[in-house]
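Example 9 (inverse folding). The structure is encoded as follows.
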């Protein structure tokens, strides 16, 4: 049996995906068939990076359900189910929880806390949380009581989530568009800084030494590779139109947690 470094929970775009919540100017041109093809390539990339991919049940009536990252956060010994602000997305959380509960305990936050997983950037010692349109200070304070790591807020000044503008690549390396967040609490990291017209590439998914990134950004790709990483470039056009990115499409469960899955 090949070594599996992590388990990735994913969900294919459903029939209502073209109606996903989005402020993108091309949202009306979302093509479901293209999105499904792009999602298949994404799954193959996860497997290529050493992952075991588990498909969550389709949710044709939930337009944004393919963005599973937003529904939960992996903590040291449990999952935190996210109290999502958008009413149309709240049903997604319990759908994901049904599967997560086969791995380990799930906990919830009380309102008025609101939190999207896309605002949570986990690093070895600190969890950075975007203070954004979807995540409030109440949730950030509550999270700090649920983990032994330091929890640090980062104001999101432009865009949907913290990880729309900054993602952690490991080894103290951050890829970031500093024009979209208050980066004062991120100065400790080494930066791969992207320009405004490359901003979409600031959302990448680091899986060991492999980095999944959106296609079409050769300058950013070369910078990532210069740090000794391998890259897999993926077409993301339909998910970009839906205000989604590379990390949004999966919930990554580290191997140590995946091994704890409760036998069925």
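The amino acid assigned to each position is listed next.
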């Amino acid at each position: 049996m090949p070594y599996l470094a992590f388990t990735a929970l994913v969900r294919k775009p459903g029939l209502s995906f073209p109606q996903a919540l989005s402020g993108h100017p091309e949202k009306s041109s979302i093509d479901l068939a293209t999105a499904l093809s792009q999602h298949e390539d994404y799954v193959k990339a996860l497997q290529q990076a050493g992952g075991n991919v588990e498909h969550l049940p389709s949710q044709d009536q939930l337009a944004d359900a393919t963005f599973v990252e937003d529904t939960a956060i992996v903590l040291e010994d449990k999952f935190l189910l996210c109290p999502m602000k958008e009413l149309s997305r709240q049903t997604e959380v319990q759908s994901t929880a049904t599967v997560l509960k086969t791995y380990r305990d799930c906990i919830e936050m009380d309102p008025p806390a609101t939190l999207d997983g896309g605002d949570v950037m986990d690093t070895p010692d600190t969890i950075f949380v975007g203070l954004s349109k979807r995540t409030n200070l109440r949730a950030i304070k509550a999270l700090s009581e649920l983990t032994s790591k330091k929890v640090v807020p980062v104001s999101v000044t432009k865009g949907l989530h913290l990880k729309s503008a900054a993602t952690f690549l490991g080894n103290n390396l951050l890829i970031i568009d500093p024009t979209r967040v208050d980066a004062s609490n991120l100065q400790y990291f080494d930066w791969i800084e992207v320009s405004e017209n490359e901003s979409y590439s600031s959302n990448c998914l680091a899986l060991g030494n492999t980095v999944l990134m959106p296609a079409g950004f050769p300058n950013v790709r070369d910078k990532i590779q210069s740090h000794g990483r391998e890259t897999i470039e993926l077409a993301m056009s339909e998910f970009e139109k839906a205000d989604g990115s590379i990390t949004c499409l999966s919930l990554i469960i580290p191997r140590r947690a995946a091994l704890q899955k409760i036998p069925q």
